[in-house]
Specification:
The complex is a heterodimer. Chain A is an all-alpha fold. In chain A, 74% of the residues lie in helices and 0% in strands. Chain A is built from two helices and no strands. Chain B is an alpha+beta fold. In chain B, the strands form five sheets. In chain B, strands 15-27-26-25-16-23-24 form a seven-stranded mixed sheet, sandwiched between helices. Chain B has a six-stranded antiparallel sheet with strand order 7-6-8-14-9-12. In chain B, helix 14 runs antiparallel to helix 16, helix 15 runs parallel beside helix 28 and helix 22 runs parallel beside helix 27. The chains are: A mainly alpha, B alpha+beta. The interface between A and B is medium-sized, with 26 and 29 residues.
Amino acid sequence: MSVLYLVVPLALVIVAVGVAGYLWAVKNGQMDDLETPGIRVIRDEQ
Amino acid sequence: MATTVTPSPIARAITLECTHCGLPALGVEASDGSVFCCSACATAYAMINEHGLGAYHGFTERRSAAVTPSGRGFIDFDHEAFQSRYVTRGADGLAHVELALEGVHCVSCVWLIERVPLLVTGVARAELDVRQSRASVTWDPASTDLSAIARTLDALGYTPHPYRGGARALLRRKEDRAMLVRIGVAGAIAANVMLAAVALYAGELNTMDAASLSLFRWISFALTIPALVWPGRVFFTSAWAALRTGTIHMDVPIALALGAAFTRGAINTVTGSGPVYFDGVCALVFLLLVGRFLQARGQRAATDATEQLFALTPATARLVQLDDSILDVPADAVGVGSVIAVHAGETIPVDGEVVSGESTLNRAILTGESADVQVEVGDTVYAGTLNRTTELRVKVHASGEDSRIARILAQVDESARRCAPVVLLADRLASRVVAVVLVLAVVTYAIWASRDPSAAWDHVIALLIVTCPCALALATPLAMSAAVGRAARAGIFVKGGDTLESLSRPGWLVLDKTGTLTLGETTLVSWTGDDALQPMILALESASTHPIAAGFRRAWVGVAPSHDFSATHTIGGGITGTVDGHAMLIGSPRFIAAQLPDARWSDWPTDDGYTPVIVAVDGSIVARATFGDAIRDDAAASLATLRARGWRTMLLSGDAESVSQRVGTALGFAPSEIVAEASPEEKAARVRALVEASGAGRTPPCVAMVGDGVNDAAAIAAATVGIGVHGGAEASLATADVAMTRDGLAALVALDDGARRSMRVIRNNIAWAFGYNALGVTLAMSGQITPLIAAIMMPASSLTVVLASWLGRTFTPETR
């Protein structure tokens, strides 16, 4: 099971990248309006 | 496409809907066969189609309210004083402004508003924030003016105002982002610790080698530390703050459970024996943060409201200087005694006295009456009223915070703040649960310490985890936000869940008359006479803009007016003319009596509170029509239902005594429940008195104020729950806790239903969470469950609450 010592830290690195991306998105204002974009996308299709 | 559509008058009157807004179409017809309820809708329709945006009218879910443009020129938007305050210039030469829009209620508004760049050349971008009704517009000042953009938005029915909540908005955005960051981090950690926990639980069943077991334990340990130090810190700081001030609230046992479980888990990790509780700890932090975020967002919506109100008065004033030149200054900075100029189409920025000019004003913002009034030199005018026809010079009596409108708005703000925060049912329970749990934990430890010291610690942790008020904490906010979401889909916009809690305790239901119980427009109430007269009357009235003329036209849509006629108007009296060779008179009884002294008309039936109109042909009286503000069809039935459910009703009107009495009596109000000729301030005072009289207990009966005008805004804010009805002024909708986009009073019944059902879901949730906790406590204290089982039981109870909240049938969409 020694592969765990490689895979688990790797998984954690991926999580860290994901969290960092999320933090960037929040600080960049992507989450400031949680309602309108959802509506916008539906309306654009029509 | 057919250019002329002429079905029978009756069929048309029943079936036709305004092509733009879907309301019954009664007047204006376009060449392509589309019909409209009003000319404003026709204008908006033409504008939308002209720019290839016809797809708007294909949306099934679109704004179902008539377009009500303010008709302002928005010239002040181009002034330097305005621009320096609200407009920012980018490096690329583009200008940017944040506008608060009226009338944004539905999803198709997003589509339309964000296509403004197609409607006005020179606009680079327009983005809408639906929740805050705020549009951010970027345009090229070289190719268009802000006033042109504003006029376009206005014509579409979205009257723009400068957005003034800048500083507060920044602060709020910071808070929101911090919350989202905490939730995101806590969620990511919780998910991964859960994964490690799955490996550990699976490893216990099968055989996992000691090294791997230890690896996963250390990994969850390492992940839990940041979860507690970063997102979880809020619980510890708030628990600490509570303890320091000698109070106890929900965060105390949460912090205690988190701390104890983490410490025990850490010790077990280091010693390599016994269970770790890290999965439970991380899940708890995440779920609690989500619950709090939902709650905060609901409460936020309520505070947004009063901010929007302050956008109603203009930001700048034109100060007339000694040499008669005009200087634009901020409206708040105008000194008492100075003279300002107010152009036609502008809103008056100060209170004062007219010193030159005469004009008509629309004072709907203060009085709620839609009819314009004449003003001349010497008359007092108020800030917020709209100058319609010609330029006025006004000597300032009060400006800024001293103006009448600002004082009314201050009252609104004060009422909003003074209204004690409704302590949610779950919070009341939770604070008691907390104390009980802490006592039980001590008892458990005491019992087990003497019997089995090694297990005592485990049992205490199991108790703290299983009684975690997590489900209790989620029970209310989750059920509320689910109910509020369902309500919105049913056309009822509720700000904040506590509103629903209040509404579930019937008390007084105070209703405004004009526009709320009645349609708010001059309607033909009765017609006694030959229908063959209708084309002749329409012909005579065709050139008139009088409300009575409009009433005839609305009532007889589809009747073609006679072509051969001539007409002369007498102001305040009636119309004389000839139609198809017959001499005709239409007018008030007094006008007819003056014209035809010999004609007998006194034996015609009279209805109190209505406006009679007499028709005479060739010197003899042949028909009589009465006009009035008709009562809504569903008003009587809805009021009866609500009264049967325990609401006491009161009619609170600014209108005249006779009219209020007639409407009130027809709808079953007792004479003592009818209050007429009430000013905005008096309305607020009445409502406040009712709120005070209903007691200051923990669960006082609800005093709900239902209204539609700005004159109701202060009363709406003073009520426990303020309700703004369909088509109401934006200011009343803004201060209201509930805004309806459904027509009529049936929506009130739906709201009452929904509030009751929501509270039932919440009570069930709480009962479930309570029962579950009681069971958990029994098991934990008797040493029947390990902390591991407790950690599994705890989220199961939360999950049940989540499912019950989302599946609860609270509000049902409108069926029609």
